[in-house]
Amino acid sequence: MRLTTKGRFAVTAMLDLALRHKHGPVTLAGIGARQCISLSYLEQLFGKLRRHALVVSVRGPGGGYRLARPTEKVSVADIILAVDEPLDATQCGGLENCQEDRRCMTHDLWAALNDKLYEYLNSVTLQDLVNEQLAKNGNVTVLADRRATVARKAASLPA
Predict the structure, then answer these.
(1) How far apart are CA 11 and CA 138, in angstroms?
(2) CA-based angle 40:42:44, to the nearest 5?
(3) Annotated domain spans of the chain
């Protein structure tokens, strides 16, 4: 079982949105630039997130995306499942036909892992991730134009 980039990027993008949503709608271009995720991939993910009522789109100038629910009401499991990311460690997808239409000897082990994984991801909210980021950084990372700083440093170097 692996969590693919689809699930990872969806959680990352939702966290970026959650960190900035109080300042108005957040553009996918902004999220993409900050998180190094292509705009077309974000459009696909946010289409699914919107259909699952996790985000709402705001049209027009100053538009973008907003969270549809409070951050404490959105779990990581909600996000991953919304983008069609399976949380399944079984080889058979839960059908119990792992070995020529029979259940394999370790099916219960992998099914129990599925339950624990879902339980954990469902217990972590977007607000938990926001709090963790703010505690680590003390603020939200914002892209800044650093050309003036680089030019000053270059000017101060001996010739």
Answers:
(1) 20
(2) 75
(3) 5-86+128-156, 87-124
Query: What's the burial of 31, exposed, middle or buried (CB within 10 Å: 0-12/13-18/19+)?
Result: buried
Q: What is the pLDDT of residues 42-87, one digit of tens each?
A: 999 999 999 999 999 999 888 899 999 999 999 999 999 999 777 7
CA-nearest of 8, 75, 9, 77 to 43 is 9
Any idea which fold 5-86+128-156 has?
Answer: Arc Repressor Mutant, subunit A (1.10.10)
What is the spatial distance between Cα 111 and Cα 107, in angstroms, rounded to a whole number?
6
What the block records as the tokens of 76 is 């990581």
Count, residues in the chain? 159
For the whole model, what pTM was predicted?
Answer: 0.78
Question: 79 is written with which tokens?
Answer: 């996000």
